[in-house]
């Protein structure tokens, strides 16, 4: 549990960064804040002191405490070049190093700095990343959304960027609540193609494994259902296995159960991505299910783990580095006033 003073610090910082308290505005008095947060005067003063040290507040003797712009000067003034913030769900795993490499290459061409943060697909960590980007005063932002298929409590931060006319673009997914430019795969089409490929090879009992707290999972399931419908194959809910960020740790165990229950039924599986596809391969080996003789598998993304695996996994291509490059290119052109 956070200390009481830290709760106040986080709340006031949030209100300043989202514009609820604007620069130059007086914040509530110490006595009012005591009642607001149900804390002692000492705790309130400790919070104000910390925010003053960070440049968020300034106190005027006999007058009160006001929102300062020093936090912008402290952070933003240190950069020689324009700075682009990049927030991804992960940094060092899967396809993300390639995406970041593409962003970095394009930014370097125009002498832009890169400020990087990751969320681990957690909305609280996304909030901290957005607060950091606001306090640093980034000139633009590239974001991979967190849990994009669920309501996001951080929408106000994105609206603040819009109000401050800081351009941002989303990659891999987007928040449906926001009107925002994005670079994404056609996820419906990718799973449609994967399922259609299996159908063309004679499969009629095709399972699907997907991550359902991200928008990609929702759209990839839509493509799977579309292909089944065109082939006049019935969608069977028991042949679908879903998971989320939180339940991913149980995926191996749940795959064992899923494959055992459908062992005599399924002949093929469309997977959310290569990571899931290779996990299916591992479980099949444990259950003595031969691939592709008894079970065919298709992944997504053509990731480095698929390329380096000891089995040749059928997969669909993701233009990882190109997507990063194009997102950065869009942002640079926007900042330069180009169409």
Q: Nutshell version of this structure?
A:
This protein is 45% helix and 14% strand.
Structure, explained:
Helices cover 45% and strands 14% of the residues. Mean pLDDT is 92; it is low at 76-80. By secondary structure, it is an alpha/beta fold. It is elongated. The protein has three domains: 4-70, Winged helix-like DNA-binding domain superfamily/Winged helix DNA-binding domain (Arc Repressor Mutant, subunit A, Orthogonal Bundle); 79-185 and 321-335, Rossmann fold; 187-307, Response regulator (Rossmann fold), CATH 3.40.50.2300. The longest helix is centred in the middle third of the chain and has 16 residues, at 215-230. The strands form three sheets. Strands 4-3-5-6-7 form a five-stranded parallel beta sheet, with helices on both faces. It has a four-stranded parallel beta sheet with strand order 9-8-10-11, with helices on both faces. A two-stranded antiparallel ribbon has the order 1-2. It has 13 helices and eleven strands.
């Amino acid at each position: 549990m956070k200390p009481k003073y830290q709760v106040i610090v986080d709340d006031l910082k949030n209100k300043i960064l989202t514009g609820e308290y604007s620069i130059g505005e007086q914040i509530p008095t110490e006595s009012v804040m005591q009642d607001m947060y149900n804390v002692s005067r000492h705790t309130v003063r400790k919070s104000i002191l910390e925010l003053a040290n960070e440049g968020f507040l300034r106190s005027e003797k006999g007058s009160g405490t006001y929102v300062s712009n020093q936090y912008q000067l402290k952070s933003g003034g240190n950069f020689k070049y324009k700075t682009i913030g990049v927030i991804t769900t992960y940094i060092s795993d899967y396809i993300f190093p390639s995406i970041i490499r593409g962003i970095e290459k394009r930014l370097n061409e125009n002498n832009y700095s890169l400020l990087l943060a990751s969320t681990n697909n957690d909305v609280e960590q996304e909030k901290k990343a957005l607060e950091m980007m606001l306090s640093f005063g980034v000139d633009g932002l590239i974001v991979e959304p967190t849990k994009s298929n669920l309501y996001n409590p951080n929408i106000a931060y994105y609206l603040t960027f819009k109000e401050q006319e800081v351009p941002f673009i989303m990659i891999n997914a987007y928040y449906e609540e926001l009107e925002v430019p994005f670079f994404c795969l056609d996820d419906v089409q990718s799973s449609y193609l994967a399922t259609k490929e299996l159908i063309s090879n004679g499969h009629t009992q095709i399972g699907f494994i997907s991550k359902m707290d991200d928008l990609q999972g929702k759209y990839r399931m839509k493509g799977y259902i579309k292909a089944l419908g065109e082939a006049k194959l019935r969608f069977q809910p028991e042949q679908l296995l879903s998971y989320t960020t939180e339940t991913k740790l149980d995926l191996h165990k749940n795959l064992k159960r899923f494959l055992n229950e459908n062992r005599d039924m399924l002949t093929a599986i469309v997977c959310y991505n290569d990571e899931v596809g290779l996990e299916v391969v591992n479980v099949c080996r444990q259950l003595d299910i031969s691939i592709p003789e008894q079970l065919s598998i298709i992944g997504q993304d053509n990731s480095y783990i698929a390329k380096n695996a000891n089995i040749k996994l059928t997969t669909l291509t993701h233009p990882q580095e190109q997507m990063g490059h194009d997102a950065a290119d869009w942002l640079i052109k926007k900042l330069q006033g180009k169409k």
